[in-house]
């Protein structure tokens, strides 16, 4: 779980599925979030919960926006948020709708901070405290998610089911409830994002070299690229991608 203070230029920013859940706290300005065909305007001082995403979307805001963003790994989000993750997949909600009205005083304290870094520190401390009371963990599920991430989605689902001791049906149900998508979709997101990061930071390299070891051929990668970005590598513009603020090079 990492947090970053961000001051955004005015824009419409692409959201690409990356396998993480986001908490966004706008302390100055509003944010409009659109995922697929659904859009929602979120106001200042209201924490936004952005669930697991399999669809591309956009963030829109003015140049005056100031926000703190928290990236939560899916193997931690199910404990932190305490709701079936498939219920919030491909959606953005106010934190009150997910975590209850107990969040209101905490959000008020975040607004009291005079500096973005203060809000980051307070936010991380509050989330750690929140997790302390939620000790029930599904360690086998967490292992399965970490294994998919570590191998960038290149794990056969039958093999993963065998390692966990679950049937494929049981594995699917656990992932849907605790992650928000099935293991096959999770693997697809991790595989795509591994290549996507290279594409963004290693411009000029042949596409065939970038997808080597992740996709059978370019047509499979291009299908995923269009699915997750609604564009092609040729028309994609990294300047409008908000992932540049947190995707490591």
Topology:
Elements: E1 2-7, E2 11-15, E3 21-28, E4 31-35, E5 38-42, E6 48-50, E7 57-61, E8 66-72, H1 74-81, E9 92-94, H2 95-99, H3 103-112, H4 116-132, H5 139-150, H6 157-164, H7 168-178, H8 183-201, H9 207-211, H10 218-229
Antiparallel strand pairs: 1-8, 2-7, 3-6, 3-8, 4-5, 4-7, 6-9
Helix pairs in contact: 3-4, 8-10
Provide a descriptive summary of the structure in words.
The chain is of the alpha+beta class. The protein folds into two domains: 2-132, Jelly Rolls, CATH 2.60.120.10; 139-245, Homeodomain-like (Arc Repressor Mutant, subunit A), CATH 1.10.10. Helices cover 43% and strands 19% of the residues. It contains ten helices and nine strands. The strands form two sheets. Strands 1-8-3-6-9 form a five-stranded antiparallel sheet. A four-stranded antiparallel sheet has the order 2-7-4-5, with no helix packed on it.
